[in-house]
Amino acid sequence: MKKLFMGVAMLIAFSATANKTSVFMNFHRKGQSSDKQIERISMRLPIEVFYDEETLSINVLGNEAISGEVFLLDDAGNVVDYSSVLNTTFPVVINGNYTVCINGCDWYAIGYLDVK
After folding, report:
1. What is the pLDDT of residues 86-110, one digit of tens each?
2. What CA–CA distance (Å, rounded) separates 24 from 9?
3. 76 exposure class (CB count in 10 Å sphere: 0-12, 13-18, 19+)
4. How far apart are CA 74 and CA 70, in angstroms?
5. What is the reported pTM?
6. Residue 21 · residue 50 · CB < 8 Å
7. Contacts of 99 (CB under 8 A, 6+ apart)
């Protein structure tokens, strides 16, 4: 009986998140010198970026303590939308390739997304 409940719970969990596509974000520190040959683990920040097929929007969610500006760029590099706060939602009306840029005080993040 426990396996049945666990199976139903997993099915509900997978169906609830099936309409969201996560965006992998590359985080970088600003002002890194290229002459240093030190390899380090990539910077990690608690920021989630995903495309929601149900609402046709790109959502950026993060900790309230993190400040940053968010830019949504189209395939040609034109700014399609902008937010001065991290937690934001961008409606997507045209399918295509988009770039999400988040600009923090001493860091920035870039992610790419193909909306079909």
Report:
1. 999 999 989 999 999 999 888 899 9
2. 27
3. exposed
4. 13
5. 0.72
6. yes
7. 72, 73, 74, 77, 110, 111, 112, 113
